Amino acid sequence: MTKAATPLVKRLAVIGLGLIGGSLARVLRERGAVGEVVGIGRGEANLKRGVELGVIDRYCLDPTEGVRGADVVFVATPVCSIPTVVERIAPHLEDGCIVTDGGSVKEFVVNACEPLMRPGTFFVGGHPIAGTEHSGVEASFATLYQGKRCIVTPTEKTDPAALAKVVKIWAYAGSAVPVMDPATHDRMLAAISHLPHMVAYSLVNAVDGYDRFGGELLAFSAGGFRDFTRIASSDPVMWRDIALTNQEAILETMDFFSDYLGKLRTLVAAADGPGLEAFFRNSKEKRDAIL
Ligand SMILES: NC(=O)c1ccc[n+]([C@@H]2O[C@H](COP(=O)([O-])OP(=O)(O)OC[C@H]3O[C@@H](n4cnc5c(N)ncnc54)[C@H](O)[C@@H]3O)[C@@H](O)[C@H]2O)c1
Ligand SMILES: O=C(O)C(=O)C[C@]1(C(=O)O)C=C[C@@H](O)C=C1
Predict the structure, then answer these.
(1) Which among 108, 48, 56, 44 is positioned nearest to 80, based on CA atoms?
(2) Which UniProt keywords apply (predicted)?
(3) Which one of 1.10.10.10, 1.10.3660.10, 3.10.270.10, 3.30.200.20 gives the CATH number of domain 184-289?
(4) Ligand 1 — pocket residues by CB below 6 A?
(5) 62 burial class (0-12, 13-18, 19+ CB within 10 angstroms)?
(6) 173 vs 141: CA distance, rounded Å
(7) Whose CA is nearest to atom 28 of ligand 1?
(8) Where in the chain is the domain with CATH 1.10.3660.10?
(9) Which of 65, 91, 279, 289 places its Cα 20 to 30 Å from the Cα of 44?
């Protein structure tokens, strides 16, 4: 990675110093793309740890004070809390400040946050399609966004210069940066991210509740079950908020998935060998093609 000659961001304030916020802070610091990083959050122990780990330069428990002098604010808290956070900081932002976020659902966030900005300050929605099942600043790492995509979701009201800067920040983090409208983002993510999490959480609960073997069934699980359900170890609050704010699209994909499970059930019930093989072959080909 090459270092930037002058920092792209003068002072970055990260609100919610966890996996997503911490990883962006780490990569921008590592690349010399930021002058100073201020961590903002509710838990002092976590913020202190952020300083110890070299993720942030300093921290502040009061968001209204923490955003002072920041030219970019990155909000990386669970989706439902993002508008509340932005409402709180909006009157305290410097002129020219860009607020962006990493929330997994975009229409809810962008619709709520855009009107909160006062003239001369800007909101640009964003979502890195990168993560792990782990949370907290300890789980953050500088290469999280390398070779991944970060979708940026402007509206017709978005300031072009602010959009360009947010695109540049994610490019510095190593990501390709597709631009799309928030509603398209939410429908796509419902299929490729939210549905798989709903299925994984359901699968673990279903197998756990399948009590024909007198308990301890999960303890016998091996590679297949563990690979498939890794994401069911993700943070419950994060996923509660995603399910609450992208409800319609998630329900549509869940219904669509149920139809496919129904088709497979019919093939199993009919002992339809060629049908089963064709079903599995099609799936294998599609998945192999994205590896
Ligand atoms: N984990 C992933 O794989 C992933 C990937 C892409 C986007 N996201 C999104 O990024 C955001 C952050 O996720 P994460 O995985 O970094 O979570 P995390 O739990 O690792 O970090 C979130 C941080 O925000 C803090 N926080 C929570 N509510 C807050 C509030 N009201 N005010 C201030 N701080 C608050 C928490 O204490 C924590 O430090 C979420 O919106 C999530 O949907 C997550
Ligand atoms: O790899 C993982 O653990 C993830 O769940 C990351 C993942 C996903 O790919 O679904 C989860 C939610 C985000 O909003 C973006 C990425």
Answers:
(1) 108
(2) Amino-acid biosynthesis, Aromatic amino acid biosynthesis, NAD, Oxidoreductase, Tyrosine biosynthesis
(3) 1.10.3660.10
(4) 15-21, 41-43, 46, 76-79, 81, 85, 102-104, 127-128, 131-132, 135-136, 235, 238
(5) exposed
(6) 11
(7) 77
(8) 184-289
(9) 91
CA of residue 132 to ligand 2 center, whole Å:
6
The superfamily CATH assigns to domain 9-180 is NAD(P)-binding Rossmann-like Domain (3.40.50.720)
State the distance from the centre of ligand 2 to the C-alpha of 193, rounded, in angstroms.
6
Q: For residue 43, report the phi and psi dihedrals to the nearest 5 degrees.
A: -100, 115
What confidence tens digit (pLDDT) does each residue in 130-177 have? 999 999 999 999 999 999 999 999 999 999 999 999 999 999 999 999
User: Residue 73 phi/psi, 5° resolution?
Assistant: -120, 130
**Three-state DSSP class for residue 39:** strand
The predicted-structure confidence for 75-87, as pLDDT tens digits, reads as follows 999 999 999 999 9
**Predicted-complex ipTM score:** 0.98
